[in-house]
Amino acid sequence: MKNKLNKIYQRLYKEFGPQHWWPGESSFEIMIGAILTQNTNWANVEKAISNLKQKNSLSPNKLYKLSHKRLAQLIRPAGYFNIKAKRIKNFLDFLFKEYKGNIKIMRKVPTGTLRKKLLLVNGIGQETADSILLYALDKSVFVVDAYTKRMLLRHKIIKEETSYEEIQEIFHNNLEQNKELFNEYHALIVRLGKEICKTKNPLCHICPILDNTI
């Protein structure tokens, strides 16, 4: 498995190059983006983030003070805006209650402890929590998403019923515990899933990892 995962990574990196993911000017922006990207595409998230920046509201203190109604209006392009405004508010309540709104304090918390705490926040699931840990806080956690599961299923590495934790363990147990590697690997899988390993009409004939040597 170690060999297989390394070969997949090398092929994807050769095909697509570095992805420079997650796009964001600050750790806090990445955290908010991780919540906004639930059930929508990144283009819509960018519009919502842009709205927050235009109103000079993209900081823990300013967003914390913003009313739910106003926040929902600003993030409207991301879809499910009332639900996501509530989730952002829940996250901000957690951030201020646990860490006084200070991301530097949050970053010092051990990964396992912080992950458990994040998962207790209403509206923060495993993928969102892990995205915050990896991309915003530089923790060595592999993010599993629909693209990851689809790729592994099609290459018969997992079964349909394989859980999030089991998929994550495949990467944690067979790759170097390196945040840069986890970052790049996940970003490359997303690129593969968007452009080639699609849900419908996948372009298998041009897939860089489809042959018998992997």
How would you characterize this protein structure?
The structure is a single chain. By secondary structure, this protein is an all-alpha fold. Helices cover 62% and strands 0% of the residues. It is built from 12 helices and no strands. Helix 1 (2-16) packs across helix 12 and helix 2 packs antiparallel against helix 9. The protein is globular and about 55 Å long. The model has no long low-confidence stretch (mean pLDDT 96).
Features:
214 residues, globular, mainly alpha, 0% strand, 12 helices
Query: What letter string, H or E per element, gives the SSE order?
Result: HHHHHHHHHHHH
- Give me the count of strands: 0
Radius of gyration equals 18 Å
> What is the typical, i.e. mean, pLDDT?
96
Helices and strands, with pairings:
Blueprint: H1 2-16, H2 27-36, H3 42-54, H4 60-65, H5 68-74, H6 81-99, H7 103-107, H8 111-119, H9 126-136, H10 146-154, H11 164-174, H12 179-195
